[in-house]
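Chapter summary example: a protein plus pyridoxal-5'-phosphate.
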Amino acid sequence: MTDRFSHFREQLDALDRTSRLRRLVPRSPAGNQFIENGAEFVNFGSNDYLGLASQPTPSVSRRGGGSSSLVCGWTDVHEQLADRIASLESTESATIFPSGFAACSGVVATLPGPNDLILSDELNHASLIDGCRLSAADRVVYPHRDVLAIESILQQQRSQHERVWIVTDTIFSMDGTIAPLVEICDLCDRFDAIPIVDEAHATGVMGTNGSGVCEALGVKSRVPIRIGTLSKAIGSQGGFVAGPHVVIDYLINRCRTLIYSTSLTPSAVAAAMAGLDSIEGEPERRARVQALSSRLRASLEIITPPVESIVPIVPVILGDVTTTLAAAKSLADIGLYVPAIRPPTVPDGTARLRISLSADHTGQQLDRLIKHLRRGDPFRPSA
Ligand SMILES: Cc1ncc(COP(=O)(O)O)c(C=O)c1O
């Protein structure tokens, strides 16, 4: 019986030989720390940018969604959450998905049609990539943030397609870089293309009101379709898309990851509402994580444009997998958890430590991390 799966074992063994085998590790989180095998770690690996995930869930009267949104799983609170997201995003409408992955993959798979073209950044999240793969449209992947490459593809291919969609993350999850949205919007105007962005790592963190990078760069009104997650800064679980009524109505009728999946659980909806309350009512959380992020970059002498310096994802690219794992272990040995990110999550030769910051981190915790990174201990080959 097991022989039928021996090819999986061989592949797992091959991953193990190249230090790429990954395992689930049970951890007990408490605030910005967790306990693993009895040892305590400060968590620099979570996407809980505003420190909201560790807050208690508001009590709800029922446990499950019960059915898909279209059948009878859409409740008054789902409607209220969708309205609040539309209001945060300043769009006509919004709807909610079971996860950010379902939102990204579903929207990109559904909106571009058979005679269309999708242009997609090479470092886009897997969920956008899978959406491209599922779509009936033609696809071209452009080099990371390369506006000239986008222009050249549009010059060559625009006329052969009915519609063109430019799909990009606004903050790239493994690099902490920001998409050149102003330039992309200019190209969309020039070539009659439509931008679709994923604000997964930006909602709650970027922009004066916390709606994301589109707000921070002043292009909210130029980017009609904006996807996001409830699972990172908002501190809950689930995904959303915000846009014009006609687009949201079309998705409700056509998007398979929305139609054929149970609606978001009521406890996740309530937690997301509480997260939005904090984003609106406690801007000091946003200001704090932004300040910690620029302090970390300044201390590590990482020079970026001002808008990028406040992004709470700071990669330290070390290149090879062994060095990166050793660096992560050396930080873990002193109680600091910084995940080692390896291929295939990042391109070959770019393994890295990915530091993510939270408004919950104390100045002392950050200082300890900075001290050890600056001393270079984690990067020295072990004796
Ligand atoms: C850029 C990006 N988009 C989408 C997602 C998916 O969001 P979720 O975790 O809510 O499924 C993630 C999460 O890992 C992400 O990093």
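Key point: The chain is about 40% helix and 15% strand.
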